[in-house]
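Predict the 3D structure for this chain.
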Amino acid sequence: MSAPLSASHLVWTRRIAQLLVGLALYGLALALMLRAGIGVAPWDVLAQGITRQTGLPFGLVVNIVGAAVLLLWIPIRQRPGVGTIANVLLIGPSAQLGLAFIPQQTAPVFQVLVFTSGLVVLAIATGLYIGARFGPGPRDGLMTGVHKRTGWPIWIVRTGIELSVLVVGFLLGGQVGIGTLAFALLVGPMVNITLPLLRVPGGPAPVVEPATASDSRDHSQALPDRLERERANRKMVRSPGSATDWALR
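Done. Predicted structure below.
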């Protein structure tokens, strides 16, 4: 008879499953918000603009942009993780598959419903793949890398990057609308709920200033969880009473 799976094997299985399911759902969320037709997140405005100028499929452009951002990690000396590479490779195809099956919405009621559905799916997806703890996505790695190299506050770096890609995307023909504003205002609080619920236990809790939570695709540095931080900051020491008893200090 085969030995039962150890706790560590179960944790690894969960982490891998969360990473893959989360990235697949994230692509689906992008497709839903794109088909809603009322505006998308800044990086997706850029991808949409490039698509309109080149005729390349949106999903492929998402992959290309992710890879280009990853190349920018070289001068700022950032190192990608498994989750970083998976982010670049999997979100684009998932988004393209979703676009193939989700029709474009034109009625205002359905536009709002589809966009809202996409935002909810995105928050869940973000909690899943970031909670898997396999490394930052390319955009968050760029943000934190620039922050480390320059010493500029994270919120300034994030705002500067996202405003830049938003303007370029808009000039290229990407759609900026009420959905873009809704994304910026709501995604941070929503992921702040899903991330603690879906985070796989172990390792230090991810922390980022709340003001930087405007593009959840890369919330790997992510959103505050006070209880997790308190646990991570405590040290485990053996109690003098027994070799198997533990005390927290």
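Residues 207-249 have pLDDT under 50 and may be disordered.
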